[in-house]
Amino acid sequence: MRPIPQSLALADVLAEELSDPRTAWHAAPPGGRAWPQSLAGGAAGISLLHIERAHCGRGEWETVHTWLASAADGDLTAAANASLYMGAPALAFAMNAAAGDSGRYQRALKKLDDATLTVTRRRLARAHARIDSGEAPAMKEFDVIRGLAGLGAYHLKRHPDHPVTAEVLAYLVRLTEPRPQEHGRHALPGWWTSVAPNGEASPDYPGGHGNFGMAHGIGSVLALLSLSLLHGPAVPGTREAIERICAWTDQWRQHDATGPWWPGFITLDQARRQHVDPALRPRPSWCYGIAGTARAQQLAGMALGDTARQHTAEHAMLTTLQAPAQLDMLRETGLCHGTAGLLQAAWRMATDSTTGALAAELPRLTDRLTQQITHLKERDPELLDGTAGSALALHTIGTNTAPRSGWDTFLLLA
Question: Which of 4, 155, 194, 305 is placed for a possible disulfide with 165 were both Cys, Cβ 3.0 to 4.6 Å?
Fold first, then answer.
């Protein structure tokens, strides 16, 4: 793959628009989520764009400091709702990305790290008590946005050899163990939840659902466990846990005229009937679609030495990138729901691919994202669904270099 200079130029323009926290939201659409300590929508997330640029020599550390100070303004939460995407752990993630191998921010990072350790161990205690009780988990117990997969991503990045990292990984292994309850002939996996995909109990989802997604489902657990097996440290039972998840996702892998795909989730009725309606193929986003699920499968294939799995994942991504009807489903630009997330995932997969076919599709996907951004009437500045995330994906493709800050760890793409 070669760098794409025009995408880097656009990333520079977008970053300049977001250089000052005092004016960044002036053109944003109403109803945003610009809480300072939010990685998704606030200053903590936008700081990652400037952190990555500063590490690469394309931005100023003074801008980074301004954004981090904005993120730290006010009382930070380390309460029960704190997670990788909100509160002390979110700011810890951003500051750790800024610090890198330097001595920057060490005093503040130590305080944030201690708070994140406390949050994590409280969450682990509740999760193990829940498993002991035999109850089904809530998605926010284990997912990347609100749960322990997200906190585990932080700890694996920040201090892979710390005991808490092993504790989180051990919990995720335990999460994959079968639960004793069965519905009819079909045993449900340990991560099957009793609520609807929005996280609330609903009569529309009697018996709950099984979630495949990277944002709220088992995809994030698969990715994190695979990364730990690939790069260390892997706790006992990691390989077997990955294999259990893969066996379930293989059972539900679908095929259509485009290629292989995985559902976003399945209901109890679908599990009983062993059938998923082809019309339920999700858009190819990071949160629930190919961008997330194929990358998790590729990482699992690499971790297990399963070349067939890796090839299937890469083929799923390739056929999606070659299908205009699939790409047209991404009407937004962002990392979570839009084209930027697909671009970042496709770039990561192309760098690990056994062929050059994925790389050959990236210029066209980059052009699509560029056109989408330039035709926007309003630009939301946020990281997860807005300008900051799009700029980071364009920066990656523009430099053709793995993020020096490791920013896409928060998506569990690497």
Answer: 155
